[in-house]
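User: Structure tokens for this complex, please. No commentary.
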Amino acid sequence: MPAFLFYFFSLLTILAALFVVINRDAVNSAMCMVVALAGVGALFFLLGAAFLGALQIIVYAGAVMVLFLFIIMLLDTSARHRLGISEINFVVVAGTLVALIGAALWLAHQYPAVGDPPVVEAMPTDQAPMAYATASKAFGYGLLTRYMLPFQVAGFLLLIAMVGVIVLSKRPPSDGDSPPGDPRR
Amino acid sequence: MQPGLQAYLAVAGIIFAIGFAGVLLHKNTLVIYMCLELMLTASTLALVAFSRFYGAMDGALFVFFIITVAAAEVAVGLAIIVALYRRRRTVQVDELNYLKH
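Assistant:
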């Protein structure tokens, strides 16, 4: 059953990723992107990382893509959207895509086969490296013991990003009074 | 047959390649940014697969930090794109050529 699920979700993810690229409308691209990111989240679930799968769907497919859709609709570039396929450009891109996919498949094939360690819902232990466990408790244990400093740095990073976004999106006071349609140089 | 590490790596590689092609092909900054996110997600998928098949938790824990940093990065990047649109009234990369002249 998981084998069938793996093929289903990887096919779904790859097709959605393709539609992100070949869609001409940015909103359609964003919608396909939601499907692709949720598909990657499903692959996380299949790998036994249920916490990461939930995080991927909530943060990526949820929050980040909502932000993207807001900005796409706010800027409204649909009137002048262009895919910009000139012949040479398309040939170069298609060649690059085929070469990259071939390289990826070849490298993945070359990779030495490793064993399939059983997925356990283990309780956290102090052994290093931590054994792979599906339990969210083990995940939180790792975050709050071994990776405590990066965890706090990540929190500060989010705070700094928030302050940075507020600073960036503040209008400069000198031309704050000009009408919104006015192209400023 | 149970899919192994190679199958997951192949999927991650294909998604990464598609995202890269999108970065090359598109002219809309927002779509380019989305394709960059697609590449980042593909790399996290490879990281989780490595972590799972080597039986160590550290890779999966690092994906948590990658998702955090990516969320911060998206917020800042989109703010920069909005600021760019305010100044130039466009987000098409071929119209943003002021360094060229």
